[in-house]
Each structure stands twice: as structure tokens, then as C-alpha cells.
């Protein structure tokens, strides 16, 4: 077996080594679909399946993997491949494959991306047909590459907000004009005219608004003409009425004043008619002045020009004074209108500039050069404040500016924080270096090489100490470095002396190597000679450091023996040279084939062929000495020529990769932010949403892909690993909470240590239920302490002031923990027992504190016994005494007769009673007793269980009697 064959990795998709299978899949050509499908479906390692899916071009197989594979990342890779096939990102695929890929995709975001970006109309329409969300349809109508797809998505839109968004944000003419035509609200049309990205949409919206204004003006003019006609008719009526009244008055006058009165009346009538005529003649001019005084906005000058033409077309007034006064009013109104229009233009100019400043602020905030961004943002901020003074700006523009300002401020603060972080990291690195060097200096097995390297590192660090957070940190690092240098120098010098002695020892080693080299004269096998020669050369290099005087003579002796042995291997080497010459010819042929493929434009097929040439190159052995580099450079140059051209062809995709990189980094940041969360459900939903969004993002640069993926996957794995252990974590917390309560009670119950007479059992042992060993010599019987002595011992230490409240609180916390459950049975029983012992110890230590309270076990026992005794008495009165063996043998009829007899006796003695009321009262008493028992405080477990059993038996007797009574009635 050749030497290269020994190091060649095993290949084949059946190899037990997963790494070998992964390498095999990576080297497979894309046309091996059946084999790739088999690996993608059946391989046990997810990495191998993912690598196979990344090269699989079969939509049907990819769809099956995307739905059925157990590993989520494999499914993600399958969906990504389906998307790329649908978008025809690979050569050699047709419309059928694209449509099949679309049919296999279920993710809505992926379908939206295909509908927007697919280069083939059929594929885009197929993806659009599976999109139902209104917002998604609006996005496709705004941004789809195919006009027919945009139109089809727009035709399915019915939401006015989405129609307005299409008109404002789409850069394509066809959907924006259609959206404008379907918009009827004037406010939305004005918004489109001012903000639409497409100029045709803006122009059409302005035309529609202008038509609305013209219709409104025509309607107003018709209304004014109708009003003027009505006013003229009213004036004529009034004149006629006044004339008739004047005539009637004149006829009633006396004959003496008849003529004079008639003349006065005629003169007054003439004056009135003249005045009304003047007013009627001046009314159009007055109305025109009032209209000019009301003109506002963008079309003010156009309306003023029309009003001026209308003014000039009016006939001159007979009254010169009124004419001049109205002329002056018209001129004042015209000047005021021009001023208002100029002010409006200035406001619009300032608003437009503010919009530009908001956009410039956004671009400045996004600049990579932070100092330049600071300079630009300062100038923008000054101009913004100058223009915005005393003016109400557009809230949307103000919001955009505020967002840019906030983003820049955050970025500036982040840069400052980054500088501080860099200083802190430099301090950490310096501290790590000093710590490492100090550890090296303190080692007992220090070597000369490590010591000299440590000294070199100390000198380098002292010459280039980086910027640190404070001068104190700088001084401390320098001091520690100099201290380490001082400690190292004597040790290194000592090691150098030892090295000098080692050189003398190497003289003996070299003499032995010379003898071994001279002994090769007796060896016949050239391979063995060559191998031993190489081994001896390696050993000689290891012992090469010897004094110069002996070194020259020993080297000549060693070289003479080496040359003699090597001469005997030359024939063997000649055969090797012939084989190397054949290998050279094979590699030259591979170079020629690679050079012939270097200018190919069939990227995928040629890449596969070149990869085959590279694999074949690896199988060819070594070439003649001196030819390795040149022949390899020739082959690599041809391969590099092709792949360089291929990479240039992929350069246009870098923009997409950069966008995808930014999106994935943002997702990584979000995943890092929630990976340590304990809000399990919300965090799990958010992490799954991030994973789903990750699937919709395309590829990134290969050199960044794995690291980025490992970062995102690491955050997700960390969270879900914690998520899988959440119940154990919660269980541990609940157990810890109960143990903490027990520890607090045990701390309260712990007695103060005091000397006791020999042979007396300690109080702690008595409380714990322990007894001395009767077999021990010291376990002599002793009299039991009197109650007075026990009380005095318990009160040896004064009880804390808040003991009762503390114990109540601890008991309440314990009951709350028990109600919460969530602890396994064995551990819960052990903790319950521990709590009961600690609680009893506290009560026993200070009985006077708890005596008579709801925490006094003896008082609680008495209450419980009283209740149980009352219920037992009630059960006896209801059901009679417990049946003996003879009564138990009676038939039900006989037992019922006995009960009736007892009832008659009771009626005879105490009067007739209402049995139903008595049973209901008994049931009420049982319920009240159960409630009273639940409110009773702590009682020893054995006592409580015994009393509870008695209570249950009594209540069961009452229940049985009640049922028998109901049966007897039925």
C-alpha cells in the first residue's frame, strides 16, 4: 500500500464514520439524485442528511424530507432548497421543477417571496394562487417582478388601507394608477399626490383633486347666481310695495301739501332706487373681494388671476367714490392673497427641506464612518431647529427624524460602550497574560523553552501595554509584569546552565548514533536501511546540541557512515524516481484537462468535472523532486482560473447575501436576548417564531454561514435545553422552598447548648424521639423529670418577641406550598415528617407562648375530640347503637321493625318529631363539624388520623341512616 493510501479517508455512504459519510456526500455530483435521495432519507446523522439535501435537486424528494424528517434543521434546509428551485437558482432546472417545488412549499412567507421574485410567470402565479392574506397580496402587488403577477394580486385586494399603501409605495406604474382610480377620498388622494413614489400616480391624483375642485367651484358659482337673482326679485317687490304705500299716503294728504309731498316722495323714491341700484351694481365686486380674502393654499395665485380677470371684465360703477373704495379693497385683498401664498410657499419649502433633513438624518445615522456621521448629524440638527422654529411640522416627518436621532444616539452610545468594552477586554487579556506568566514562573518543572518564551512575552507586553480602563489598572499590570520578569530571570539562567551540561551529555548519545549508523553495513533490505537512516537522523537532530570541538568530529563520522549506507539504497531510489516520473506524466495530463476547462461557462458541470480531476489528483503519488511545486502551481492555476470566473459570476448575489446576513444577525441578537429567559411559554413561542423566520431568510456568505448558524442554533439549543428541564427546575425550587421552611423552623427549635448531668438524656435527643443505648454503661436509669422541671428547661431561653407571628407565617407558607403540590411522593412525605418534627419541637420548647392559641396541639386535640364526640353522639341518636353480631344477623324487615319500635318509643316519651327535619339538621351538623375540623390548627399526626377515622365512621353511620330512611319512604 502506498504511503498516501494509508492517510486516505474512507469513502462511501455506508461508511460507519459519520465524518467520512459527510465528506463523501460533499464530493458527490449533483446528478446523483437517487443516491442523494437515499442518503437524505435514510442516513442516521442529521449533518449528513442536511448535506445531501443541500445538493438534492428533486422537488418530490425534498417535499418528503421537509415534511417527515425528524431533525428541524434538515427540514429547514429542504424548504430552502425548494425555494431556490422555485426561483430557478440552479442551472439545468425547468418550469416543471419550479412548479413542483412551489406545490411542495407550505410556508406563507416563502410563497410570498417566490411570488415577488420568481423570474418565470407561471411559477410566480402558482405561488400567488396559494397566498390568501390581504397584507401579503398588497406586498406582492407593490413589489412583484412580473407585471401580470402584480395585476393579479391587485385585483384580489379589497382593503382600502392596502390600496392606499399600493398607491403610495409601489414604484411600478400599473398597480399605482389602478389604486389611484379606485381611491375616492379627497384626503387620501392629496396624500398620494404628495407622497407617492411613482410620479404618474402623483400626477393622476393631482388631476383628480383638481377635477373635484372645479366641480365644487362650478356648483358654488351656480349657487351664487341663483342667490343674486332671488335678491333682485326681492328688491323689485319691495320697491313696488313702497311705491303703492307712498301713493296711498300722498292721496290722503291735504290739498295744501299735496304737490309738495308728491315731490318729496318722488325725490326720496329716486334716491332709494339709486342707492339700491348702486348697491346691486357693487355687489359682484364686493363678493369678489370677499372671495379673494378667503383664498388659501397652493392654487391661490391661479384663483387670484381668475378673480383679477373677472374684476377687469366687470363694468365701471357710476359712483366714482364707491368704485375707488372697492378698487382699494380689491388691491389690499390681492396683496394679502399674494402674501399668504408666499407664506404658504415658504412653509411648504421649509416642510420639504425638513423632509429632506429627516432622510439625510436617516442616511447619516446609517453611515459606517462614525466620526463623519457625528459631523453630518450636528449640521442636520442645527438646520432642523432653525427651520422648525415657529412652525407646525408633519408628524410623520418629525417621527422619522426622531427615529433617526434615536438610532444615531444609540449607535453613538454603543460606540462609546464598545470602546470601554475594548479597554475592559484588553485588561482581561493583560490579566490573563500576567496570570499565565506568573503560573509559569511558579512552576517547579519549568523548561528552558517555556521560560525563555515567557520572558519574551513579558518584554513584549511591557513594550506595548494597551489602553486600559484606568491608570490604576495600568500601574498594576506593569507592576505584576515586572515582578514576573524578576522571578523568571534567575530560573531561566539556571536552566541555561543545565542546558550547557546537557550538551556534554549529548556527546555520548551522538557516539552511540554513529555506532548504529556504522552497524547498517550488515543490513540488506534497502527499505529497512532507509527507514533506520531516517530514524537515526531524527535522533541525531534531537541530540544535535553538543560542544563545537567534539561536534565536528562526530558529525564527520556520522555523515561518512550515512553516505555509505545511503549509496546502497540508490537503486531503490532510482525505481522510486521512475514511478515518480510516471506520476508526473499523469499530473501533466490532468493539468492539460484542467486548462481546457478553465474558460468554460457551464458552471455546474465544469465544477463537477474539475472536482473529479482534483479527486483524481489526490490518488496519484508523489512526482520527481523539484517538480512538486511547479506542477501543483500549474494545476491549481487552471482550477483557480475557472473558480475565479465562477465567483465573479456570483458577485451580483453579494448584495442579497449582505441583506440576509443583517437579518440573521438581528435574529441571533434576539435569540441571545431570550435564551436565558424563564418566561417559558412566551420565550418558547418567540424562539419558534425566530426559527420560522430564519427559514424564510436566504443564504449568506459561506465563510459566515456556519458561525452565524452555530450562534443562532447555540442560543436556541441553550434555551430549549433549559426548557426541557423546566419541570425539574421548578421541582427543585419547590423542594428548596419547603426545605427552607423546615430549616427556619429547625433553627427556632434548636436548643441553646448547656452542660447536663451525667446520664441525663439531652433535650434535643428527647425531642427527636431518641433514647440512650440501654446496653451502654452510661445508660443508667434516671428518674423522669417533673412537669415543673420540663417547663423550666423549655423556658431556659427567652422566647423571641415575634415567635407566634413567625410560626404562623411559616405554617401559612407550608400550607401554600402543599397546596401548590409538584413534589414527588417520597420526598414530600420526608419533608412533611421533617416539618412536623420541627413544628412539634418549637411548640415543645416554648409551650407557654402557644398555650391556648390555635397553634397549641393539646388545645386543638381537645377541640377535635369534642367535635368528634358530638358527631358520634349524633350518629348514635340517628342510627341507634352499633349492631352486635346478633343484630347483624337480622333480616332487613326485622331491622326496620326494630327501628320503628324505637321511633314509637321516642314519640311516646318525648312527643312526635319530624324525622325529615331531624335528618336535615343532622346533615347540617355534619357539614358544620367538617368546617370546624378544617379550621382546627396543628394536631399530632397519629392523633389526628385516629380522630379523623372516628369522625368518618360516625358520618358514614349518619349517611347510611339517611339513605335507609329515604328507602323506607320510597
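Sequence proposed for the structure above (970 residues):
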Amino acid at each position: 500500500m502506498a504511503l498516501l493510501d494509508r492517510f486516505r479517508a474512507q469513502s462511501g455512504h455506508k461508511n460507519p464514520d459519520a465524518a467520512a459519510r459527510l465528506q463523501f456526500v460533499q464530493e458527490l455530483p449533483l446528478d446523483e439524485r437517487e443516491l442523494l435521495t437515499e442518503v437524505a432519507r435514510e442516513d442516521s446523522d442529521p449533518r449528513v442528511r442536511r448535506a445531501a439535501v443541500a445538493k438534492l435537486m428533486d422537488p418530490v424528494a425534498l417535499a418528503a424530507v421537509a415534511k417527515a424528517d425528524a431533525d428541524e434543521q434538515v427540514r429547514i434546509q429542504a424548504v430552502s432548497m425548494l425555494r431556490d428551485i422555485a426561483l430557478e437558482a440552479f442551472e439545468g432546472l425547468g418550469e416543471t421543477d419550479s412548479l413542483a417545488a412551489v406545490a411542495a412549499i407550505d410556508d406563507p412567507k416563502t410563497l410570498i417571496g417566490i411570488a415577488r421574485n420568481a423570474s418565470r410567470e407561471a411559477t410566480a402565479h402558482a405561488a400567488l394562487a396559494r397566498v390568501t392574506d390581504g397584507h401579503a397580496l398588497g406586498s406582492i402587488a407593490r413589489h412583484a417582478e412580473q407585471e401580470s403577477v402584480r395585476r393579479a394580486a391587485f385585483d384580489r385586494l379589497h382593503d382600502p388601507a392596502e390600496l392606499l399603501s399600493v398607491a403610495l409605495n409601489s414604484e411600478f406604474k400599473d398597480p399605482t394608477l389602478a389604486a389611484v382610480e379606485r381611491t375616492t377620498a379627497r384626503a387620501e388622494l392629496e396624500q398620494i399626490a404628495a407622497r407617492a413614489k411613482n410620479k404618474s400616480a402623483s400626477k393622476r391624483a393631482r388631476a383628480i383633486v383638481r377635477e373635484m375642485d372645479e366641480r365644487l367651484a362650478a356648483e358654488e358659482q351656480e349657487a351664487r347666481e341663483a342667490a343674486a337673482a332671488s335678491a333682485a326679485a326681492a328688491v323689485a317687490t319691495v320697491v313696488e310695495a313702497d311705491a303703492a304705500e307712498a301713493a296711498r299716503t300722498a292721496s290722503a294728504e291735504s290739498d295744501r301739501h299735496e304737490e309738495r309731498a308728491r315731490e318729496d316722495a318722488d325725490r326720496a323714491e329716486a334716491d332709494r332706487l339709486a342707492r339700491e341700484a348702486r348697491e346691486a351694481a357693487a355687489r359682484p365686486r364686493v363678493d369678489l373681494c370677499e372671495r379673494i380674502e378667503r383664498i388659501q393654499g397652493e392654487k391661490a395665485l391661479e384663483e387670484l388671476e381668475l378673480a383679477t380677470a373677472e374684476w377687469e371684465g366687470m363694468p365701471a360703477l357710476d359712483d366714482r367714490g364707491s368704485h375707488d373704495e372697492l378698487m382699494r379693497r380689491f388691491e389690499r385683498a390681492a396683496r394679502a392673497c399674494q402674501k399668504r401664498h408666499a407664506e404658504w410657499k415658504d412653509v411648504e419649502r421649509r416642510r420639504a427641506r425638513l423632509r429632506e433633513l429627516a432622510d439625510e438624518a436617516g442616511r447619516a445615522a446609517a453611515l459606517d464612518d462614525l466620526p463623519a456621521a457625528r459631523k453630518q448629524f450636528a449640521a442636520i440638527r442645527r438646520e432642523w431647529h432653525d427651520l422648525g422654529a415657529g412652525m407646525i411640522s408633519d408628524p410623520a416627518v418629525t417621527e422619522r427624524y426622531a427615529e433617526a436621532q434615536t438610532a444615531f444616539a444609540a449607535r453613538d452610545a454603543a460606540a462609546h460602550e464598545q470602546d470601554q468594552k475594548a479597554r475592559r477586554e484588553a485588561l482581561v487579556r493583560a490579566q490573563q497574560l500576567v496570570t499565565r506568566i506568573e503560573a509559569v514562573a511558579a512552576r517547579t518543572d519549568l523548561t528552558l523553552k517555556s521560560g525563555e518564551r515567557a520572558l519574551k512575552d513579558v518584554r513584549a507586553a511591557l513594550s506595548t501595554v494597551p489602553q486600559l480602563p484606568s491608570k490604576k489598572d495600568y500601574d498594576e499590570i506593569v507592576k505584576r509584569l515586572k515582578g514576573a520578569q524578576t522571578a523568571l530571570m534567575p530560573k531561566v539562567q539556571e536552566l541555561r546552565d543545565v542546558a550547557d551540561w546537557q550538551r556534554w551529555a549529548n556527546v555520548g548519545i551522538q557516539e552511540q548514533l554513529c555506532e548504529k549508523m556504522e552497524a547498517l553495513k550488515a543490513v540488506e533490505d534497502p527499505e529497512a536501511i532507509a527507514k533506520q537512516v531516517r530514524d537515526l537522523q531524527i535522533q541525531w537532530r534531537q541530540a544535535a546540541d553538543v560542544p563545537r570541538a567534539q561536534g565536528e568530529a562526530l558529525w564527520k563520522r556520522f555523515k561518512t557512515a550515512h553516505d555509505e549506507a545511503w549509496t546502497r539504497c540508490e537503486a531503490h531510489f532510482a525505481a522510486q524516481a521512475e514511478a515518480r516520473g510516471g506520476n508526473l506524466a499523469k499530473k501533466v495530463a490532468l493539468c492539460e484537462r484542467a486548462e481546457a476547462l478553465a474558460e468554460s461557462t457551464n458552471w455546474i458541470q465544469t465544477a463537477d468535472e474539475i472536482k473529479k480531476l482534483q479527486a483524481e489528483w489526490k490518488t496519484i503519488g508523489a512526482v520527481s523532486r523539484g517538480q512538486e511545486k511547479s506542477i501543483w502551481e500549474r494545476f491549481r492555476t487552471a482550477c483557480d482560473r475557472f473558480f475565479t470566473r465562477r465567483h465573479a459570476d456570483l458577485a451580483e448575489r453579494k448584495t442579497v447575501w449582505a441583506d440576509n446576513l443583517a437579518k440573521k444577525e438581528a435574529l441571533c441578537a434576539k435569540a441571545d436576548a431570550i435564551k436565558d429567559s424563564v418566561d417559558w411559554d412566551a420565550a418558547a413561542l418567540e424562539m419558534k417564531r425566530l426559527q420560522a423566520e430564519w427559514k424564510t431568510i436566504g443564504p449568506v456568505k459561506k465563510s459566515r454561514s456556519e458561525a452565524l448558524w452555530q450562534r443562532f442554533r447555540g442560543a436556541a439549543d441553550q434555551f430549549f435545553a433549559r426548557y426541557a428541564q423546566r419541570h425539574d427546575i421548578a421541582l427543585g425550587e419547590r423542594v428548596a422552598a419547603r426545605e427552607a421552611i423546615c430549616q427556619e423552623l429547625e433553627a427556632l427549635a434548636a436548643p441553646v447548648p448547656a452542660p447536663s448531668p451525667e446520664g441525663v438524656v439531652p433535650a434535643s435527643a428527647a425531642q427527636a424521639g431518641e433514647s440512650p443505648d440501654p446496653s451502654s454503661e452510661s445508660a443508667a436509669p434516671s428518674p423522669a423529670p417533673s412537669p415543673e422541671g420540663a417547663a423550666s428547661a423549655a423556658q431556659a431561653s427567652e422566647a423571641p418577641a415575634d415567635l407566634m407571628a413567625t410560626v404562623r407565617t411559616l405554617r401559612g407558607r407550608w400550607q401554600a406550598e402543599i397546596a401548590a403540590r409538584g413534589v414527588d411522593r417520597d420526598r414530600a412525605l420526608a419533608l412533611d415528617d421533617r416539618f412536623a418534627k420541627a413544628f412539634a419541637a418549637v411548640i415543645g420548647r416554648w409551650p407557654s407562648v402557644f398555650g391556648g392559641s390555635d397553634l397549641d396541639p393539646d388545645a386543638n386535640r381537645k377541640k377535635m375530640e369534642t367535635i368528634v364526640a358530638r358527631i358520634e353522639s349524633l350518629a348514635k341518636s340517628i342510627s341507634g347503637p352499633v349492631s352486635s353480631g346478633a343484630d347483624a344477623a337480622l333480616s332487613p324487615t326485622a331491622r326496620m321493625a326494630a327501628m320503628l319500635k324505637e321511633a314509637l318509643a321516642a314519640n311516646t316519651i318525648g312527643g312526635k318529631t319530624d324525622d325529615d327535619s331531624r335528618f336535615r339538621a343532622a346533615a347540617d351538623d355534619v357539614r358544620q363539624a367538617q368546617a370546624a375540623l378544617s379550621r382546627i390548627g396543628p394536631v399530632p399526626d397519629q392523633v389526628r388520623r385516629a380522630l379523623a377515622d372516628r369522625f368518618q365512621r360516625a358520618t358514614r353511620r349518619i349517611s347510611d341512616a339517611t339513605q335507609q330512611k329515604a328507602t323506607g319512604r320510597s
